Task: structure prediction
Amino acid sequence: MGDDVERKGLGTPATRADIIEKLVKDGFVKREKKQMIPTEDGVKLITVLPDVVKSPKLTADWENALTLVAKGEYSMQEFMGGIEDMVRDLIHTYHSVSDEQKSMFGSGSVEVYGKCPKCGGDVVKGKFGAYCKNKCGMNVSRVMGTALSDSQIKSLLEGKKTLVKGLKGKKGSYDAYLIPEGVEDYSYTKDGKEIKGSQYKIKLEFPKRKK
Result:
């Protein structure tokens, strides 16, 4: 790094710690003997990222611009406008990925749970749960606010009656068989933004109590 970059700063200790934690969580960096070691996926990611994105100078320039904003010497609108322009340029320049770069990721076998009940695409196991590869908006990993196990996801995708324990209700938790009867759309508002998606249309059947 040049002296100019170092003088502008590379973020606060808090922001650096937050970035490191995200890299660890996403599997790009691992902790080993009090050191941060890049994983195989981390090394691959660095090789395909545009130089401008992984340059310390970009972070230093942004940090310096934010300092000027705080002092009233630079407007936030100009700062954000510059970022938007940069992102548009990056998307235009790097709109496609070569087959060689694609082959670097996802080379291992991916577990397929079954077919999506909404679009027929493969439902696969991801880092944050099951999802439809077609990204059609179908939520296959939760039902009635409860996270499903691998076996429960597979069972529902096959259209089977599936026992799920610990469902939450107004009077507490309960167990029930879930019977999938198609798909229904849902929407809700969060932080002023409308969220839309699809979920199982479920019929409940309660286990018979033993006498």
Observations:
- The beta strands are 29-32, 35-38, 112-115, 122-126, 129-132, 142-143, 146-147, 162-169, 172-190, 193-205.
